[in-house]
Amino acid sequence: MSINIGLSEQERQGVTEILNKVLSDAYLLLIKTKKYHWDVVGPQFRTLHELWKEHYEALTISIDAVAERVRMLNGYPLGTAEGFLKNASIKEHPGDLPSAEEMVKRLVTDHEQIIRNLREFVDQTSEEFHDEGTSDFLTGLMEEHEEMAWMLRSFLDGESFAPSGKRDKELAGKK
Question: What is the pLDDT of residues 24-34, one digit of tens each?
Answer without folding.
Answer: 999 999 999 99
